[in-house]
Every structure is written in structure tokens, then in C-alpha cells.
Design brief:
By secondary structure, the chain is an alpha/beta fold. The protein has a single domain, classed as Formyl transferase, N-terminal domain (Rossmann fold). It has eight helices and nine strands. α1 packs across α2 and α5 crosses α8. The longest helix has 52 residues. The radius of gyration is 19 Å and the shape is globular. The chain starts with a strand and ends with a helix.
Length: 267
């Protein structure tokens, strides 16, 4: 099975570690590395402003500051440890592996790159909604490891919003095939682990939902290759399109988590 990975150039877990894992059971024929321009980042901010309004956007910014000063170090320590482990567990990629650096995975050069490589399957680990002329190039399709249980927690930060909504049985990752919607394609699996909502941030939780389940995800991708994979019926379930975390919701979640921990300690 020939595979391609799309990811952001500055996302070490996906840019450095995930291709090693992918090469352990497939032939990685290329990587699309996204280096966004400042205007693209500004456009993302405009979309979030349109979604939540200026007052709530201050809540989003407050969370970003809080995370930077009080949470980021723990996430970074987990990532460093995981990168070291994965570098030992999986061999390095060939030095001559084709890599396309682009500002957009929907660019004409991306399409030409993919058509030249002719992958069977592509993994997209990026913040950009792919166009049909991109995600339809691989013969088996393009798949995402979405940080959230779909369809309840589509779009951004699904693990965070499940935790913030006290929907603790919906904290995990969804393996789904990309279609024209936002995380609305056929679902091939849900993956989670016994997370610790006291000690872990939602960033670590959503990363562990992927990287603690690499073997199970590998098995499912191999089933897709063989044509034996069965999709999960999600018709009739609630569907939510979520955005960036809010500090107010984060603090409410952590207070509720501490209360749950105290109640468990009493029993």
C-alpha cells in the first residue's frame, strides 16, 4: 500500500513521528508539508470571530494565554517523551523521500505531486479543509484521525468540548474518510484510552487518543486496504460543529473534574 501524509511543517508529532509509524506497514511515497502564510492565519482568526463574536473571542484569546503560561510545559514534556519513544520504536525514513512544501494542501502543485506519486491511501493531519480534487486522488481515499467523536464533536478540539460538556464517554478520536463536509465522511473506528482529566490537558488527551492506539489504527487501515473494513452507522446521532477552546469552559471543566475526583475518593 502506497501512502502519503499531509501535515503542518511545525507539528513535530505528525511531521516527524507519524511517517515513521506509517512506513512500518506501508510504503510512504511522499509528505505534503504545509507552511502557512500570515494571511491564511488571519483568515482563520476571521472565521472564528464570525463564529463566536468579539466578546467570546476574548475568551478564546484568554485560553491561549492561560495555556501558554500554565499548561504548555506539561504538553511539551509529553510530546518530547513520545517523540523519543517513537524514534526508537520505528526506523527513520529514507533521506530521499519526496517532500512537497506548500502554503496550501489545495494548491495545484499539491495535486500534481499526488498524481505523480499515485498513492493508494492518504492521511491528512492538518487544519485545512481539503478540496475534492485533492482528497479524491488516492485510490482508497483520504483519512483523518479526528480529535473528537463524530458526529457529536466535529471540526476543532472535539476532545476539549466533550470534556467541557461533561460528555465523558465521547472523549476520543475518530478515524473517518474525508468527504466534502467537515468531518462528515464514513466512520471506520473510534479510539480512546483511560485518560486522566485531572493530570492531563485536552491537548495531551487528544494526542494520546491517537498515539496510544497506533496499532489498532494500523489494523483498521490494513482492513481498508483489503476491502474488509466495516463502517460504523452514525445516522440519527446528534451532530455538532465546534471551534476553539474558551477559558471559561476550561476552568469549569477542571472544577468539575476535581469535584468528580473528590467524590470518587469518598467511595
Amino acid at each position: 500500500m502506497k501512502t502519503v501524509l499531509i501535515c503542518h511543517h511545525d507539528d513535530d508529532l505528525n511531521r516527524r513521528a507519524l511517517p515513521r509509524w506509517l512506513s512500518s506497514f506501508s510504503q510512504v511515497v511522499g509528505i505534503v508539508s504545509i507552511e502557512e502564510k500570515s494571511q491564511q492565519k488571519k483568515n482563520r482568526i476571521k472565521r472564528e470571530l464570525k463564529r463566536v463574536g468579539y466578546l467570546r473571542f476574548l475568551d478564546v484569546l484568554a485560553y491561549r494565554l492561560y495555556h501558554r503560561f500554565f499548561v504548555h510545559s506539561g504538553d511539551a514534556a509529553y510530546e518530547t517523551k513520545l517523540l523519543s519513544h517513537l524514534a526508537t520504536a520505528y526506523p527513520a525514513l529514507p533521506a530521499n523521500l519526496p517532500v512537497l512544501t506548500t502554503a496550501s494542501p489545495n494548491s495545484p502543485e499539491t495535486r500534481a505531486f499526488l498524481e505523480k506519486l499515485q498513492p493508494n491511501l492518504m492521511i491528512a493531519r492538518c487544519k485545512v479543509i481539503l478540496k475534492p480534487e485533492i482528497f479524491a486522488v488516492p485510490t482508497l481515499g483520504t483519512y483523518v484521525m479526528h480529535p473528537g467523536i463524530c458526529p457529536e464533536y466535529r471540526n476543532a478540539h472535539g476532545c476539549f468540548w466533550a470534556l467541557a460538556q461533561n460528555d465523558l464517554n465521547k472523549v476520543g478520536m475518530t478515524l473517518l474518510k474525508v468527504d466534502k463536509g467537515i468531518d462528515t465522511g464514513p466512520v471506520f473506528g473510534f479510539f480512546t484510552y483511560p485518560y486522566n482529566e485531572i493530570a492531563e490537558s485536552h491537548i495531551t488527551i487528544q494526542n494520546r487518543a491517537v498515539f496510544d492506539n497506533l496499532e489498532k489504527i494500523r489494523d483498521k487501515l490494513q482492513e481498508i486496504e483489503k476491502g474488509t473494513a466495516v463502517t460504523i452507522d452514525t445516522h440519527g446521532r446528534p451532530s455538532g460543529n465546534w471551534g476553539q477552546p474558551w477559558l471559561t469552559k476550561y476552568l469549569c471543566w477542571k472544577r468539575a473534574a476535581a469535584k468528580r475526583a473528590r467524590e470518587r475518593a469518598k467511595t
